[in-house]
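We give the entry.
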Amino acid sequence: MEVILLERLEKLGQIGDVVTVKNGFARNFLLPRNKALRSNAANLKIFEANKAKIIADNDTKRADAQAASKGSDGTSVTLIRQAFSTGQLYGSVVVRDIVEALEADDKKVGKNQVVLDKPIKAIGLYDVKVSLHAEVSIMIKVNVARSPEEAELQAQGVNVMEQMFEKDSAGFIEDFDPNAEPGIQSDDAAPAAAPAAEASDEA
């Protein structure tokens, strides 16, 4: 479907560009959110008649986003979650969790502004993009840990996951003889046959 963009969209184009997109993307995202119009003669006339206002409105929204970004860029939020000993979470951290954590810190963002390619499924420190406007984005730190103490270590740059694996591997070190024959567990196993041999000599 061909549409007329009403705002700049990354990887698509600038305000006023006529671009071709998938029908579903246009119907489910661009059109209902007033980010584009269907491209036809009538809508082209409407766009041209309102172009100045559309550009002015976009400039205002961009300025508001830039102002908001100054107090939010580099923000860090901590999420305490239960996890297995391997560091894998019992559940996962999704966009809603990040939005709620930001709101608790008086940072207002919409779910559609948090760019999370896939849910977070392990403890660690993550960089997450927040798109405040088509032309303004910030990066926030999401600190996922099992306790406030663990979160503090991660914030200081400690790789908690790496430390856990080091402890696990240290607990499973085996002392073995590389020259031992298969099936022989220790040097103490051989003398077990001696009493039988002595009994035979006495007979």
Notes: Residues 172-176, 182-200 have pLDDT under 50 and may be disordered. The helical segments are 23-30, 41-72, 95-104, 148-155, 160-170, 194-202. The longest helix spans residues 41-72. The two ends are 101 Å apart (CA to CA).
